[in-house]
Amino acid sequence: MALAADPRYPDWPCAQAKVPEISLAAVWAGPPLDDAATKWKGDPKISALAARLSARRVSLEDAQKEITEFLSGSAADKTNAGKLLFAGLFDTLNAQRASVMNGLERVMRKQREAADKVRSDTLALQALQDASPPDQAKVDALGNQLVWETRIFEDRRRVVKFVCEVPTAIDQRLFALGRTIQQEMD
């Protein structure tokens, strides 16, 4: 396992730099959100739509179509609804992203523990094999345990590589949905 790229985040396993939160300015060039950042939760329609559009199982194209349909109204209505919807998407997707990132760091800590366990079990297995006479039942049991621990370690390593792409995908989704909202508001 490689050392973290940024010493501030020693448990961050991904190649890309860890950015703990999405910056509003990085994904929104529309009008100031003002009180929309808190008011969106009080609107059941906006809350439900933000939750649905934030789900990664909903394709980006389908989410963009829903935004276009939702923001069909007068300019004032579009602006207000668009700000509320974006505020909801921003909060929801930022929370999803934080959850994924916390999970990645938690898995990295478990990986370190697993690596230590594999190391100590390997040394214990070598000691059992070097004993004379070796206790073959213990050697076989520890050998099987070590194979299993190594398999789990490798499987987690492969999953982490895949999951490292999720925060970036969330960033891109938020940016694309925000751009669609802004275009509909214009």
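Second entry:
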Amino acid sequence: MKAILENISKHVILTPQEQELFLSKTEIHHYKAKTILLNSGAICKHSYFVNSGILRSFNINDNIVEHVLTFACEGWWIGDMYSLLSQKPGNLFIEVLEDAEVVLLSKENQEILYREIPKLERFFRILTENSLVANQERLMDNLSLTAEERFEKFCRKYPTLIQKVAQKQIASYLGVTPEFFSKMKSKMLRK
């Protein structure tokens, strides 16, 4: 639980009693690779913090094509923000890509913590703002950068994922076909 407390301490400082209360409202789960934590059409009831392993969020369009929205590595949070905040059915799947230890914080317990430890509201506001900024930046990148530039940026943002995540999932994240990604990657490696 040290990792999640260190994550929180980047933005707010909790007293030992507040840390204890926070931890009492969380659950630790171990998941095997390929476990689906959230299905499209379900209501997201938890925020997930990755202690170890890799998770991804994605959706599947009407043509049965996957679109990876994000990856979450050690020390990252993930969830279906639309569904979690609105408590309406979402359109994202959350899948474990690599065996993982994940801390779950339920929406209900998060609301309790907001009342009991108001500075946690600030913490989650900062996370939400950072997520909004990252999503806007990704949207602008998809509109203005070439696939090669998006891949280079991906490599800088997720340096450890290149060897751990299937190429078709990286291609999906970049918005290109696996075939195009394979050709682009080999061309870039020849440079």
